[in-house]
Amino acid sequence: MNTSIRSGGFTLVELMVVVAITAIVASIAVPSFNTMIKNNRLTAAVNDLSGALNYARSEAVRRGRAVQVDALSGDLSNGLRVWFDADGDGNFDDDDSEELRLVRLSSSADFDVEGDVDGSTKTDISLSYSARGSVGGGGNQFKLTLCDDRNGDYGKELSLLATGVLRLTSSVTCS
Questions:
Q1: Could you list the mean pLDDT of each consecutive 10-residue stretch along the chain, which spans 175 residues?
Q2: What is the CB neighbour count within 10 angstroms for residue 117?
Q3: I want to staple 147 with a disulfide (CB 3.0 to 4.6 A). Which of 10, 17, 64, 155 is the partner?
């Protein structure tokens, strides 16, 4: 009786071919995945900013009085504070009675955030929404530009018109 028993495993050559193909596919996919992660982080930060600004506008209209938006610690990268002046002194009071929302940017350490108020670039922005939802505080148009560590057309820009309307521009050139 001549019976041959065949093993159900892989040969070393077959295993090496599979490992080589996996390495090639991974080397192609990883750079695309990093780009996708950076794009998603940038989009999340823009959504944080636009959400804070839209919230401030709606609160001003709902309350029928001015609502302020200020950069935290003088830098937009730290986030925004949305507040209203309950006692009418013109200053933010730290007793939490005036603060409506505190917004920190997602992964803000990875971004450069600059505000452009009628041509002058700065990171300390202070805006005021009126009871009608329009914006005051230094000009007719505000632009908030977000860029990460990439050069090229990867940035995003939020334009805030004096009427309080937000516009998003993608593919802004960053350096």
A1: 67 92 87 84 87 91 89 78 80 73 68 61 77 72 81 86 87 82
A2: 19
A3: 155
Please tell me the predicted confidence (pLDDT) of residue 137: 54
- Residues with Cβ within 8 Å of 167's Cβ and at least 6 positions away in sequence, in order, are 158, 159, 161
Structure-token pair, residue 170: 């993608």
**pLDDT at residue 20, as a whole number:** 94
**Which SS3 state, helix, strand or coil, does residue 9 take?**
coil
Question: In 10 A of CB 56, how many CB atoms?
Answer: 28
CB 29 within 8 A of CB 37: no
First to last CA, the chain: 78
CA atoms within 13 A on the CB side of 65: 9
- Six token digits for residue 137: 């505080």
Residues 134 and 57: their CA atoms lie apart, in Å, by 8
105 vs 79: CA distance, rounded Å: 5
